[in-house]
Automatic annotation (TrEMBL):
PANTHER family: CADHERIN-87A (PTHR24028), PROTOCADHERIN 1 GAMMA 11 PRECURSOR-RELATED (PTHR24028:SF296). The lineage of its organism: Eukaryota, Metazoa, Chordata, Craniata, Vertebrata. This is Cadherin domain-containing protein. Keywords: Calcium, Cell adhesion, Cell membrane, Glycoprotein, Membrane, Repeat, Signal, Transmembrane, Transmembrane helix. It is found in: Cell membrane. GO terms for molecular function: calcium ion binding. It comes from the Eukaryota. GO terms for cellular component: plasma membrane. It comes from Gambusia affinis (Western mosquitofish).
């Protein structure tokens, strides 16, 4: 995508400066970009400025898949109204819960760029819409912005069949209207680029019929429309073609090889067209999920039914298998609710004469509480001043529990013996803030334990301990160890002799606890007190400046 060829239209709906005294302010802007590829890239921005000093915002973009590395997705500085120097001073970075990072942030320009080629089918398979979610984190003060990038589909996958060839053995006595289930093609693309239609050639003996399913897929059947004659034609070769709906149409083919057999009057018939079953995730391998049943009115070998699973290009065959003789559908792989909540299994019943019937088995996976909440530190301070304001954000954490329902609902708390509390700032995000005044002289370091527990039975939990140092401010005055001092000196003393020593303590630390001693300006008999005594600034030792004469001065008071 060439950013130079784009046109922008910006609609400002509310400025976050309109109500500076509001405890919660928000704004929203939309940027739409139209390119020469006739695709739209859109950005939606939402701001929330919370009263306790924590800024949260959201921005959304829409881009096509397969953009080249280094392509521009959007400019976070422009779209969120941030200055470049704020991105640099705040050490702006990307935080993602997933290990794969498809995008990167250029702090010098504010641009979000494609870091790795994004393949929508690899990222989301058939799920729509397909989106990347991550956060932009800034420090000092802590701010974070949630970013969503919707990945739109391009027509880069052709329809394909799991097998290049399908073989049928069909009796020459098969009646007009006899149905033969064909394998469906799979197109990894979605929307208009997905599979659109099928064709079958030649059509002398068979016609193609499609049946729409509630899930949007089509069942493909080959229907006999002209009697077969083994003596005239023992073998037939047909071609099934699947075509997608993309602007540049793509297609895939499968060969159908038919061998005409002698008389087989009745096709198998399932007792139900749709079966339903439920299985708990992580169930043991070998668990029987359901049993499907078909019957055939013929006798002998023509009534022998074989069951098979016909799913293509999905995980069904890796997780389930069917007993070819009994119809029992058995678990052979791991079921994980967090990966797939349901499965649709396509089953085929075939007799020895090549006649078939099909049915579907819907398997719902029940969730168990098998995932602990995951705690990730998005941003944290390791040192804060003891004079910080209440509700100062110390740490921002992200919580994720892959379970669902009450198993995935998480509550977090901190140990009660600290002046900190957790505040929920957005879905699955918490900020640790100061809840009362800090005093380094009382506590110089805190070990804050954050515990997150889900509501499953039994409940699962995770914890993390944060160490926070409290830095000193000069909030304590020096204190003398006495309120008054008395000392004696013999007259005619030597100048410079030590008379006594004063001592103070200061509860502060380091430089703030260093004390310097000075004499207050005062006089005795009109003579400055500094003419009589001096004090060492560092040690507090009082020294005689002159030789005292008892007949001239009998006592000396000073501060």
């Amino acid at each position: 995508m060439d950013p130079g060829s784009t046109m922008q239209r910006i609609h400002n709906q509310k400025s976050i400066l309109d109500e500076p005294d509001s405890p919660l302010e928000f704004g929203k802007a939309q940027v739409e970009k139209y390119t020469d590829r006739t695709m739209m890239r859109q950005v939606t921005v939402t701001f929330f400025i919370l009263s306790f000093g924590f800024v949260f915002g959201q921005v959304s973009y829409s881009i096509p898949e397969e953009m080249a590395k280094g392509s521009l997705i959007g400019n976070i500085a422009h779209d969120l109204g941030l200055q470049i120097k704020r991105l640099i001073s705040g050490k702006a970075r990307i935080f993602t819960r997933d290990s794969d990072e498809y995008v990167e942030l250029n702090r010098e320009t504010g641009a979000i760029l494609v870091k790795e080629r994004i393949d929508r089918e690899t990222l989301c398979k058939k799920t729509t819409p397909c989106s990347l979610h991550f956060q932009i984190i800034l420090e000092n003060p802590i701010e974070f912005y949630s970013v969503t990038i919707q990945i739109t589909d391009i027509n880069d996958n052709e329809p394909s069949f799991e097998k290049r060839e399908k073989k049928f053995k069909i009796s020459e006595s098969a009646v007009i209207g006899a149905k033969f289930v064909l394998e469906r093609a799979v197109d990894l693309d979605v929307g208009i680029n997905d599979l659109k239609s099928y064709t079958l050639k030649p059509t002398e003996n068979f016609e193609l019929k499609l049946h729409n399913n509630p899930d949007g897929n089509k069942n493909v059947e080959m229907v006999l429309q002209k009697p077969l004659d083994r003596e005239k034609q023992q073998n037939m070769n047909l071609v099934l073609t699947a075509v997608d709906g993309g602007e540049m149409q793509m297609s895939g083919t499968m060969q159908i090889v038919i061998t005409v057999l002698d008389v087989n009057d009745n096709a198998p018939v399932f007792t139900q067209q749709i079966y339903k079953a439920t299985v708990t995730e992580n169930s043991a391998k070998g668990t029987v999920v359901a049993t499907v049943k078909a019957s055939d009115a013929d006798e002998g070998s023509n009534s022998k039914i074989t069951y098979t699973i016909t799913n293509t290009f999905d995980d069904v065959k890796n997780i389930f298998e069917v007993n070819q003789e009994s119809g029992e559908v058995i678990l052979i792989g791991n079921t994980d609710f967090e990966e797939s909540r349901s499965y649709q299994i396509h089953l085929l019943a075939s007799d020895e004469g090549g006649l078939t019937d099909s049915c579907k088995l819907f398997v719902d996976i029940q969730d168990t509480n098998d995932n602990n909440p995951q705690i990730k530190i998005m941003s944290k301070s390791t040192l804060i001043s003891e004079d910080v304001k209440l509700n100062t954000v110390v740490t921002v954490i992200s919580i994720e529990d892959k379970d669902s329902g009450q198993n995935g609902r998480v509550k977090c708390f901190v140990n009660e013996d600290t002046p900190f509390i957790l505040k929920s700032s957005a879905n699955d995000f918490y900020s640790l803030v100061t809840d009362s005044e800090l005093d380094r002289e009382t506590t110089a370091e805190y070990n804050i334990t954050v515990t997150c527990s889900d509501e499953g039975v039994p409940s699962l939990s995770s914890g993390v301990t944060l160490t926070l140092q409290i830095s000193d401010v000069n909030d304590n005055a020096p204190v003398f160890d006495r309120s008054s001092y008395e000392a004696y000196i013999v007259e005619n003393n030597t100048p410079g002799v030590s008379i006594f020593k004063v001592k103070t303590t200061d509860a502060d630390w380091n430089q703030n606890a260093r004390v310097s001693y000075i004499l207050e300006e005062s006089s005795v008999n009109g003579v400055p007190v500094s003419s009589y005594v001096s004090v060492s600034a560092d040690s507090g030792v009082i020294n005689a400046v002159r030789s005292f004469d008892y007949e001239q001065i009998k006592d000396l008071k000073f501060c």
